[in-house]
Amino acid sequence: MQHQNRRNFLQSIALGSLALTPLNQLAAMPVQRKAKIRFGICTDVHQDIMHDGEARLKTFIDDMKTQQVDFIIQLGDFCRPYEKNLPFLNIWNSFPGPKYHVIGNHDNDGGFTHEQVIAYWKANGAYYSFDQNGYHFVILNGNEKNPSKDRPPGYARYIGIEQQDWLEKDLATTTLPTIVCCHQGLDNDMGGIENATQIRLILERAKKVQLVFSGHHHLDYVNEINGIFYVQINSMSYQWLGDDYARVRYSREVDEKYPWIKYTVPYKDPIYTIAEIDHRGNFYLKGSSTSFVGPSPKELGMTKHDMPYEIVPYISERKFKLV
């Protein structure tokens, strides 16, 4: 009995000491890792552009149910908060496990605010965090306005001071290895976050961020910067080509109802992926492949100068070791 009481006393001291640990020391503590984690990722479905967005999303959801992943997440450009999109949203909500949203720039098209999109999706917020299977996940909102008068034209793609302060505090209060998700890339200057270098410094200084997932660019690549892997997930639906390469890819009826598709090169089947990390820190990203609908970008005469990363209808299988 005396040994038991002493053990309880020592455990109480240890827990009390941890509770009194300053945040700066807490951030420097070794990260903890638990059991294997598997989660489904899709991005850039573009329900408001694609004629078969519901079918594409259903393919993903049905597969995730079969695979019994721990949770699913979509990385933005999902759907605008129109009543007509409720059947699409209901497909997403049919997944029985946790579901997470990242806001994309096109989700606010039509004059919708972030708050309206969040309420429609019933999302956790514009930016937020959660823990799952011994990992800390941070969801960023890359659609804030740059206060500078010299900001580039086009969609807002900035992370403001208030969100930066929140991010620093959030990272300081976890000892778990951390995964970040943001619609726009933090690792490129091709339409990525305008103050990406500033945000990367926050992630690097925390010394616990291991992966960053992004969508938006409709490409397939990974970059490693100062020990953090930046993984770009390809669109479920297409790559945008623009006016110079416009071509009707489906029927005239589809084109009349969905006129933006002709400015894209669609993927025949939906592509998406499952990310897995085992208890040893081995990361695995499942590959997903299809083909183009109609002529490929190369067949249309696009060069590497038009798109530095090659436009491809797949998500590459990837394997690497996390710290």
TrEMBL record:
Keywords: Signal
Keyword rRNA-binding: no
Taxonomy, superkingdom: Bacteria
Xref: PROSITE patterns: TAT
Span of the signal peptide: 1-27
Any GO MF annotation of the entry: hydrolase activity
Domain Calcineurin-like phosphoesterase: 37-218
Keyword Signal among record annotations: yes
Pfam families reported for this sequence: Metallophos (PF00149)
Protein name as it appears in the record: 3',5'-cyclic AMP phosphodiesterase CpdA
Taxonomic source organism: Chitinophaga niabensis
